[in-house]
Amino acid sequence: MTSDAGNAAPEPSDTPSAERASNGAAGKGADRPGDAGVDAAEAVGTADAVEVLGLVAALEHQAFARLAGDSAQAPGLEQALALSRFAARCTERRDRVLARIAELGGDPVAALARFGTVLDDFDARTTPSSWSERLLKAYVGYGVADDFCRLVARGLDAQSRVLVAELLDDASHAELAVRELDAVCAQDSVVSARLALWGRRLVGEALGVVLRLAQRPGVARVLDRADVGSAPAQETPATVFNELTAQHTRRMSRLRLTA
Amino acid sequence: MTSDAGNAAPEPSDTPSAERASNGAAGKGADRPGDAGVDAAEAVGTADAVEVLGLVAALEHQAFARLAGDSAQAPGLEQALALSRFAARCTERRDRVLARIAELGGDPVAALARFGTVLDDFDARTTPSSWSERLLKAYVGYGVADDFCRLVARGLDAQSRVLVAELLDDASHAELAVRELDAVCAQDSVVSARLALWGRRLVGEALGVVLRLAQRPGVARVLDRADVGSAPAQETPATVFNELTAQHTRRMSRLRLTA
């Protein structure tokens, strides 16, 4: 990971030794005397930002493929059209994040590639068996992923932070999912109960993915700077877990389902 | 079909009897005396335009799904990114055509739905067995489909004609296909020979699809007005076939493959 992060932001000062130096000085701020130390910390900061932005871009890229697949399987043409538009928007969001990675001196494609398989496990464990299950999977899966990205992004430089917050402020897919799932659940309490169960499986798997992501050194450092719930750095994982769970409960209650 | 076309453009004057009146007056122009005749001809013209625009929109919608699938299967991330961008652009083009259908008083979703399965046969008969075959399928398939749409669009009202011509003027997918296939063919003459054969199968199937489309009454009437190769109306199918074949030969020669 450390050397990967170095590759993603090939700046003059971003050497493995600089990376190690800062890895030792974990925690918030990492204010050390001497120009070399500041430069090294800055380089690590940039490499970490590229890592986190690579994750955001990868999630958008995979959301594109998923929504395009959903569009092809949608039961109605109106839904297929709406989902294809959401998919198209994912490519725009992804490309804006890739442009920011390039601005920071990183390699956009390498940064994206690092997270190319990030959802493979999640997908293998959660194969939907109906259109409603598919919609709920996207609703819960994107919900957790977006919430996590929003949390981590708080630890980025101002420009990247604003960009991520702005991009993730598009609730159009969630609105479609809520509208359709709400209609389904209102008609059939058995389906509703099964979907509630499915939602619990989905959120468990999704939290597993993001908590593993949170342990990647680059992501963890940005997360520490993010002041999640203003807890001490060593409690960050628990705080992230609590915050994501709370958001998930809110999301399920929009469907009148118990989380 | 005739009553379908009526449904797509529910204007006051677009009654089944108006449709029949103009069906009888086939050929170019259909100049008949009396206001009722002109109104009826206009209504048929609009219904036919909606039919043709529905075809263009449906092809873009299906190109979106296809390119998104290609993006997911692309051997490299650079290609995956490029293909996802092409897919996104298909949704924009489709939506511009749907907007034009609405402007003409048609029902965009109904117009699109009429051609929802237009490529199913083509797909069933042409399953690619490699990435190169997949690329060539899109290159040949879109090539023939776009050429056909361009031909038919010449028979539309000025605004629709300009719109279709403008939308289909995006050669970015063709350029990617040519670049990649050219590289593959340059390295391996056996692969090159197999791809030439595959290209011939593809164009045969694609021409079959468009010639069936050309026989739909609404499409046929627009095609007659299109003055294809300035031949008499009854020779239109042969002229369309010749023009599409000539374009295909040009397209294959860009790959240095024999059509």
Automatic annotation (TrEMBL), chains A, B:
It comes from the Bacteria. Coiled coil: none annotated. InterPro entries: Ferritin-like, Ferritin_actino. Residues 49-213 form the Ferritin-like domain. Residues 1-37 are annotated as: Disordered. This is Ferritin-like domain-containing protein.
